[in-house]
Every structure is written in structure tokens, then in C-alpha cells.
Design brief:
With about 400 residues, the protein is mainly alpha-helical. The protein has helices at about 1-10, 25-45, 50-60, 60-65, 65-85, 90-110, 115-145, 145-180, 180-200, 215-225, 230-260, 265-270, 275-290, 295-310, 320-345, 350-380, 380-400.
């Protein structure tokens, strides 16, 4: 009886319990995971609002300039795939801190280059380094946070991703317009370095994870299972298509607004990225709806909302374009949050592998589609470009149409 009692006491020890709402450890986890999202996504899409300046600096086309963004996301996709086999060999916090600090050094170095091809190479490497955070962040939360508090923690992490993407873009646009793209890059790099240092100080070490050698064969078996699962594969392609469309809009909208008939100055264009706040709302709304409505219906609703968002982008009214961008951003993040959750729910085992493949498709879509659609804009016009994005959305809708 004493042994049983001892076991009961052991289970109740604080160091054995997962973090729950109200405790200090949970607060530090939430704050730290939010900071990690800010740092990663401020750097990942750093050059997106500065593509027009890169065109002038290096005498390249808009489609060519988009490689500064695509290289980073291809690096992220590559890193996530590799970390699917290696991430569990490293302590969670150590990997995340190392990734956040090293990436900021690469960001600052990229401000000194005078060759566009070298900038692409540095951005690819930076994307690989940043993937160290994304590869384990959700796994850390699932291991360290109580199930009743997990949904809120994940939503906060995704909100940090969104806010980081928004703040990085707004900051880069404003600073580059006033002081040039090089100083803007240094500014984002230094800011992200400070975030990394604070993260290292406040984020708790893992209590429920021990580094272990990954069984490569088992990982490959899981990947094979997921790539043969019709629902999961469709969700992977949905992620690639809608992410490609989303990145395309934000890659090239600046070119549209700088040209006639809009001719907007940089400090006004910067504020279009505030529409990212609607993305935070999209993620949070998805979390609430998913407890009350079927997942596939929620996904279709958000994906249908992408269509009016695109239609508003065809107008010559800045106000309507901003409304359309808000709708499109809200719908994208809602659909993305729902699709990633559906993948995790569908995978009965090897959830981390299923999620890694999801992110691989997600970032490949960002890279390949995000650069390719620029060719349509370069060869034809904005209307044809939006038409291409409409076809991408239509294709993703066909992938999730209800069964008869």
C-alpha cells in the first residue's frame, strides 16, 4: 500500500505535471512561444515588402526579385524535412534558441551583400536555420502543456507567427523607405536578436522530453502511410495552393500600389500589412468554431471566403483593395489553421511526421507558386495575375468538395 501511495504522490509532484492555465510555467511558455513566432516570421518574409527596392538595386524583374522570399521559404521547407529525422536528437529549448540567434546573424549579414545570388544563398541558409524553431514548437507545446490548455497555447503560437509576419513587413517597409533596404534588414535582424535573447531567458526547459535517436525507417514508413492517405494528401495540396496564392498577393501587391493609378508612397503601403491582424482573428475564430462544427465544413467556408477577397483586389479603389486584402487574409489563416488541425487529427500515429510533411508542402507552395505567379504579372497584367490566383483557389476547393 505504501508503494502505491508513493506513486500517487509522485504523480502529483509539480515537476511531473504539465503546465496548466494560471501557473507561472504556463505563463512563461505562452510568452516565450509567442516571442519565437514573432522572431521567426519577422525574418522569414523580411524581403517581401522590399521587392520593389531589390528590383532597382540589382536591376532585376519582379518575378526574379521574389526569389529573395522564395529562397528563404525553400530553406524552411528543406530544413523542416531534415528535422523530421533529426529534431528529436536535440533538447527542444537548445535547438530553438540556437536557431533564433544564428538566424539573426544571417539576417544582419544579408544587409551587406552586393550580389543578388549571394543574397538568395544566405536567405536559403537562413530559412533552414529558422526551421529549427518551427520543427519542434508544436511538439514542445503538446509535450509540456496540459491538454485543457493546449488549444489556447497553439493559437497563441500561430498568432505570434502572424504578428511577426505583420510587424516585420510593416517595419521593413517603413525603414526601407526612409533609410534603404540594408538598414531595414539590420533593424529587423537586431530586433529579432533581442527577441531571441529574451526567449532564452524566459522559456522553460522541457520536462517531458528527452533527446533520443530517431528511427529513420519508422519515419519513412509513417511518411509512406500519410502519402497514401487520400484525405491527408488532399490537405497537403490545399496547403500548398492556398499558401502559394496568399504569398503571391503579398509579394506583388506593393508593385500594384506603387504604380499608376495609385502611386502610393511607401509609408502608406506599409499599412496594408496591418491586414495581418485579420489573420489572427481567422486563427482564433477557427479554434472556437472547431469545437462546435464539422472540420471539413469550416475549411470549405474559409476557402470560399478567399474568392470575394480576390475579387476586391481587382478594383481601382484603395479602400476596396484593403477590404479585399482583409477578407483574403482572414480566410487564408482560418483555412490554414483548420487544415493543419485536420492533418493532426487524421494521423493516428506519427503525428509529428504528418505535421512535418504538411509544412513541407506549405512552404514549397509558398516558394514555387509565390515566384511563378510573378511571371503572369510580368508578361500580362494584374487582372491575369488575379485570374491565376483564382484558379489556384478553385483547385483547392475541388480538393475538399463534399462527398456525394
Amino acid at each position: 500500500m505504501q508503494a502505491v501511495a508513493d506513486v500517487g504522490v509522485l504523480k502529483m509532484r509539480p515537476e511531473r505535471q504539465k503546465a496548466v492555465k494560471g501557473c507561472l510555467r504556463y505563463t512563461r511558455i505562452r510568452f516565450g512561444i509567442f516571442l519565437s513566432g514573432l522572431s521567426v516570421f519577422a525574418q522569414l518574409y523580411l524581403f517581401q515588402p522590399m521587392l520593389t527596392l531589390l528590383c532597382k538595386q540589382f536591376n532585376i524583374t519582379p518575378a526574379h526579385s521574389s526569389l529573395a522570399v522564395s529562397a528563404c521559404t525553400v530553406g524552411m521547407a528543406t530544413g523542416l524535412f531534415l528535422f523530421a529525422f533529426k529534431a528529436d536528437r536535440f533538447p527542444r529549448k537548445k535547438l530553438m534558441v540556437s536557431s533564433m540567434i544564428i538566424s539573426t546573424i544571417l539576417t544582419i549579414i544579408s544587409a551587406t551583400v552586393s550580389n543578388f545570388e549571394l543574397l538568395i544563398a544566405i536567405n536559403f541558409l537562413k530559412g533552414m536555420v529558422l526551421s529549427g524553431v518551427s520543427a519542434v514548437a508544436l511538439a514542445y507545446l503538446s509535450e509540456e502543456v496540459d491538454a485543457g490548455s493546449l488549444g489556447t497555447s497553439i493559437s497563441l503560437y500561430l498568432a505570434g507567427n502572424t504578428m511577426g509576419g505583420m510587424m516585420g513587413r510593416v517595419g521593413a517597409t517603413l525603414m526601407s523607405g526612409w533609410w534603404g533596404w540594408q538598414w531595414a534588414t539590420v533593424g529587423i535582424g537586431v530586433g529579432s536578436l533581442l527577441l531571441g535573447l529574451v526567449f532564452a531567458e524566459v522559456f522553460p526547459e522541457s520536462r517531458h522530453f528527452a533527446p533520443a535517436k530517431v528511427e529513420t525507417r519508422r519515419k519513412l514508413e509513417h511518411m509512406g502511410q500519410f502519402l497514401r492517405d487520400p484525405l491527408i494528401v488532399r490537405l497537403y495540396f490545399v496547403a500548398a495552393l492556398i499558401m502559394g496564392a496568399f504569398v503571391s498577393v503579398y509579394n506583388y501587391l506593393g508593385f500594384r500600389l506603387e504604380a499608376a493609378p495609385f502611386s502610393l508612397p511607401h509609408y502608406l503601403i506599409a499599412f496594408i500589412f496591418l491586414m495581418y491582424t485579420t489573420g489572427v482573428a481567422g486563427s482564433l475564430v477557427t479554434g472556437k468554431w472547431s469545437d462546435r462544427h464539422p472540420a471539413d465544413k469550416i475549411l470549405r467556408v474559409f476557402m470560399l471566403l478567399l474568392v470575394p477577397g480576390l475579387l476586391f483586389l481587382l478594383t481601382k479603389s484603395v479602400g476596396l483593395i484593403i477590404i479585399g486584402l482583409g477578407i483574403f487574409t482572414f480566410a487564408f489563416f482560418g483555412a490554414h489553421t483548420m487544415a493543419s488541425k485536420m492533418v493532426s487529427q487524421q494521423a493516428k500515429q506519427g503525428k509529428s511526421t504528418a505535421t512535418s510533411l504538411y509544412w513541407l508542402f506549405y512552404y514549397l507552395g509558398s516558394s514555387l507558386v509565390g515566384s511563378s505567379t510573378g511571371i503572369a504579372l510580368q508578361k500580362w497584367n494584374w487582372e491575369v495575375f488575379i485570374g491565376v490566383l483564382f484558379l489556384l483557389v478553385l483547385g483547392s476547393l475541388l480538393l475538399v468538395k463534399p462527398k456525394k
